[in-house]
Design the sequence.
C-alpha cells in the first residue's frame, strides 16, 4: 500500500506547489497591472511601487459581488436600529459638541447641522464604525477580477492617488493597508468611495490634508459639500409624513413619480402635522411598507440624500433621524406589523437572553448575524412559530417573560 501512497502524495505535493505558484502569479499579475495603471496616470514610480508593496489582493471579497443577502430586512427593523433612542441621544450630544464647526459648515455650504449629523450617524455611527478591511487589498481584487473591474480599477486608482498626495496617511508601519473600510471600498467617517473622496472631500480644519478618517471637521464639511453639490436646498424640507384620505388610489406612488403639491392637495393628501402641504414641489408619494403603513411626500432634498446611497430606506432613515435630532417625534402611523423591530439595545438584550438559554451567539453586539438567526429559529421552532430567524418585539417579550431553563443556563458560555 505504501507504493500506492507515494505517487498520490507526489501528485498532491505537485498540485500544492503549482497552486502556490498560481496564487503568486495571480497576485503578481494584478499588482503589476495596478502599478502600471498608476504609472500611466502620471504617478511617480517610487509611489506606485511603495503603494503596491507589503500586501496581496483580498480575493475573498469577490464572493460578495454576487451574493444576495439571504435575509431581506423589513423597513421597520432597518429603521428601528438606525434611528433608535441611543442614536438620537448620541446625535444630539454631537450637535452640541460640534456646534461651532457645524454653524461654520452651515454658513459656508448651506446644509443644516441636523442633516449633516444624521448622515454621519448613519454612515459611521458618528465616526465610531469605519470598517475593518484594508481597502487597498479588497479594491485590488475587485479591480483585477469579477464583473465590475473597470469601476473598481477607477476606485483603486483614486485611492492610490489619495495616498500618494498625502491626503491619506500611509507613512506608518502598515503602509497602504492602514486605510480600512468596507469590503467594497467605502471608508472613513463619511464612508465615501475613493473617487467621491477625491472629488468632494474638504480640508475644513485647514491642516493641509483632506482627512475623513481622523478629522471630524473635515468629515462633516465633506458631507455638507456632497449634499450641496447634489442639489441640496437650504431651508427646504426633505418631505414629511402625510395622511391619505379613505379610498385613495395609491397606484402612482413612487419616488420618481412627482406631481405638484397642489395636485396632491386636491387629492386629499394632508400633512400629519396639520396645516397645508409645503415645500419646493413637485413631490412624490412614498409608501415604504405599502398602503397600510406610514405615507410620505418627498421633495427634492430627499433625492439629494438618496444620492448618497441609492436606497429609499436609507434616505428615509437619514431624513427621519435629522427630524428627530431637531426634536421631532416618531412617525404617526404604525408600521403594518404586529411584531415591531428592535433598537440596538433591545437586540443586545435578545442576544443576552439567547445566550442565557445556552445558544452560542457570542458577545451581545446588537448585530444580527447567522448565529443569532439560528438561535432565533430554534426558539421559534420550540414555540411553533414561523421560523424566519428574525428577532422582533414578540420574541423579546416572550424571552423576558420566560425564565431560562436551568440546564441550558448551566451550559451557557
Ligand atoms: Ca484637514
Sequence:
Amino acid at each position: 500500500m505504501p507504493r500506492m501512497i507515494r505517487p498520490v502524495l507526489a501528485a498532491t505535493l505537485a498540485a500544492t506547489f503549482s497552486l502556490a505558484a498560481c496564487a503568486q502569479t495571480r497576485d503578481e499579475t494584478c499588482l503589476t497591472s495596478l502599478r502600471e495603471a498608476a504609472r500611466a496616470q502620471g504617478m511617480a514610480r517610487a509611489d506606485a511601487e511603495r503603494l503596491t508593496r507589503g500586501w496581496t489582493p483580498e480575493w475573498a471579497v469577490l464572493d460578495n459581488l454576487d451574493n444576495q443577502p439571504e435575509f431581506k430586512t423589513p423597513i421597520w427593523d432597518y429603521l428601528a436600529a438606525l434611528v433608535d433612542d441611543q442614536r438620537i441621544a448620541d446625535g444630539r450630544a454631537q450637535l452640541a459638541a460640534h456646534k461651532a464647526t457645524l454653524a461654520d459648515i452651515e454658513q459656508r455650504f448651506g446644509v443644516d447641522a441636523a442633516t449633516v449629523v444624521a448622515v454621519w450617524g448613519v454612515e459611521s455611527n458618528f465616526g465610531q464604525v469605519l470598517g475593518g478591511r484594508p481597502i487597498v487589498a479588497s479594491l485590488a481584487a475587485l479591480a483585477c477580477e469579477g464583473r465590475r473591474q473597470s469601476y473598481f480599477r477607477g476606485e483603486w486608482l483614486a485611492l492610490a492617488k489619495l495616498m500618494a498626495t498625502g491626503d491619506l496617511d500611509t507613512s506608518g508601519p502598515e503602509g497602504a493597508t492602514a486605510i480600512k473600510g468596507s469590503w467594497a471600498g467605502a471608508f472613513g467617517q463619511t464612508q465615501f468611495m475613493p473617487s467621491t473622496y477625491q472629488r468632494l472631500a474638504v480640508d475644513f480644519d485647514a491642516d493641509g490634508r483632506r482627512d475623513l478618517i481622523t478629522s471630524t471637521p473635515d468629515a462633516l464639511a465633506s458631507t455638507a459639500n456632497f449634499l450641496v453639490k447634489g442639489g441640496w436646498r437650504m431651508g427646504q424640507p426633505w418631505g414629511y409624513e402625510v395622511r391619505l384620505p379613505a379610498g385613495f388610489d395609491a397606484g402612482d406612488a413612487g419616488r420618481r413619480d412627482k406631481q405638484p403639491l397642489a395636485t396632491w392637495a386636491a387629492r386629499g393628501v394632508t400633512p400629519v402635522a396639520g396645516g397645508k402641504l409645503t415645500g419646493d414641489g413637485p413631490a412624490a408619494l412614498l409608501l415604504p411598507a405599502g398602503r397600510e403603513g406610514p405615507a410620505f411626500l418627498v421633495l427634492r432634498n430627499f433625492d439629494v440624500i438618496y444620492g448618497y446611497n441609492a436606497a429609499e430606506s436609507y434616505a428615509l432613515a437619514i431624513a427621519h433621524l435629522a427630524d428627530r435630532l431637531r426634536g421631532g417625534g416618531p412617525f404617526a402611523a404604525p408600521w403594518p406589523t404586529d411584531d415591531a423591530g428592535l433598537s440596538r439595545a433591545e437586540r443586545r438584550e435578545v442576544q443576552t437572553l439567547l445566550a442565557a438559554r445556552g445558544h452560542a451567539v457570542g458577545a451581545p453586539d446588537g448585530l444580527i448575524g447567522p448565529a443569532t438567526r439560528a438561535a432565533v429559529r430554534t426558539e421559534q421552532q420550540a414555540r411553533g412559530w414561523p421560523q424566519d430567524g428574525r428577532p422582533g418585539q414578540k420574541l423579546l417579550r416572550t424571552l423576558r417573560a420566560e425564565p431560562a431553563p436551568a440546564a441550558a443556563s448551566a451550559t451557557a458560555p
